[in-house]
Amino acid sequence: MGEGFSSIKSEFIRKAIKGAPFTSRRRAYVEDLMLLEAGILSGSRLGWAGHMHYLDVQERYPRAWKTIYLELDPKGFKEEQDYDQREKQKQAKENAKQKKQEQKERQKQRNEWKKMGGTG
After folding, report:
1. Where is the stretch described as Disordered (predicted)?
2. pTM of the full structure
3. Is 94 a domain residue?
4. Domain count, the chain
5. DSSP labels, the chain
6. Cβ distance 30 to 6 under 8 Å?
7. Are residues 19 and 66 in the same domain?
8. What distance in Å separates the CA atoms of residue 58 and residue 25, rounded to the nearest whole number?
9. 16-37 burial string, b = 16+ CB within 10 Å, else e?
10. Is residue 77 included in any domain, yes or no?
């Protein structure tokens, strides 16, 4: 991490440090939380590798990510949740359309199979 612990803005992360021993495991955890904070505050300016790391950490600590996001940018969190919901609905429609197309194709193949003397 480029910035030190004193640059932390999130109260959630500050609480993770307060009273905790200075161990490598605790530091690694806090640095992961700091990455989440940086990603939330900077938007998408982490670069490709940084963004991949951010997504990995977000997946490992989903509750911490949500807490930090709501603390630092509640409006941005809601926008992201709304976007995710729209994308899920869009994906569900696409999946249903694809499934229907596959069923249609399977029925066509079944009919051809029967025309060729097969059973089924």
Report:
1. 80-120
2. 0.71
3. yes
4. 2
5. --S-GGG---HHHHHHHTT----HHHHHHHHHHHHHHHHHHHTTTTHHHHHHHHHHHHHH-HHHHHHHHHHH-HHHHHHHHHHHHHHHHHHHHHHHHHHHHHHHHHHHHHHHHHHTT---
6. no
7. yes
8. 17
9. beeeeeeeeeeeebbebbbbbb
10. no
Does any domain span residue 27?
yes
Give tens-digit pLDDT for 4-61: 999 999 999 999 999 999 999 999 999 999 999 999 998 767 788 988 999 999 999 9
Q: Are residues 106 and 63 in the same domain?
A: no
68 and 87 in a single domain? The answer is no
| Phi, psi of 76, deg, nearest 5 | -65, -35
